[in-house]
User: Fold this.
Amino acid sequence: MKRAAQASQAAGTRKACCMVSEILEEAGLDREQARALRRQLLQGVMLMCQWQLERMQASEAAAAQAEQASEAADAPPGRTRASGSRSRARRVSID
Assistant:
């Protein structure tokens, strides 16, 4: 409790950065350790986000392949969807 009273008295006269340094020092961390810990944490978050994006892209690619396979199965033999759309064009003859 004594430290809390000292901290509240010191809050009016000390800068916030000094108080943060003291808190880190009491916790056994210096500025470099805190910076290294922060960097490691952020790198871990970035790695997790990259992994999640790769999973999402892989599932989208698998869904696209499955859709193409189902379209190919629905088309008549020898025809793909692209060739079928070209054959639908009207032929116009000039008399």
About this structure: Residues 2-63 form one domain. The mean pLDDT is 77. Helices lie at 2-11, 16-27, 31-74, 81-87. The first helix runs from residue 2 to 11.
